[in-house]
Amino acid sequence: MAKYLVRACYTADGAKGLLADGGTARRAATEKAIASVGGKMEAFYFALGDVDAYVIADLPDDASVVALELVVNATGRIHSSTVKLITPEDVDKATKKAVAYRAPGG
């Protein structure tokens, strides 16, 4: 499984739902959604700033991530974006790969 970071921003309707249901209910709903596609939530935090919540989760594949993004964003109550996280060990592997590349104009 790969690890992903999800950034969630609530719309006005989403914020109304959060006010009605509370933070722990939102965390539970998120954990259930992630589990429904075979994933496991590692962390859920609300935040100050331009992003309202951050979630870190292990998910089986990119298709599972896309399925979650489509369902969540289709509600119109949350705008989310997801970043696939890379381990330091994977970066070590990447530094060992030979790449044939010529810079533009080079």
List strands and helices in order, with pairings.
Layout: E1 2-10, H1 12-21, H2 23-36, E2 40-46, E3 53-59, H3 62-74, E4 78-84, H4 88-95
At a glance:
The chain has 106 residues and is of the alpha+beta class.
What does this structure look like?
This protein has four helices and four strands; from the N terminus they run βααββαβα. A four-stranded antiparallel sheet has the order 2-3-1-4. The chain has a single domain, classed as 2-Layer Sandwich (Alpha-Beta Plaits). The chain has 106 residues and is α+β, with helices and mostly antiparallel strands.
For this structure, what is the CATH class?
A: Alpha Beta
Instruction: Name the strands of the widest sheet in spatial order.
Output: 2-3-1-4
Q: Report Rg.
A: 17 Å
- SS-based structural class? alpha+beta
* CATH topology annotation: Alpha-Beta Plaits
Shape, per Cα inertia axes: elongated
Amino- and carboxy-terminal Cα gap: 39 Å
**Low-pLDDT windows of residues:** none
In N-to-C order, the SSE pattern is EHHEEHEH
The DSSP helix count reads 4
Helical amount? 40-55%
What key attributes describe this structure?
4-stranded antiparallel beta sheet, 106 residues, alpha+beta, Alpha-Beta Plaits
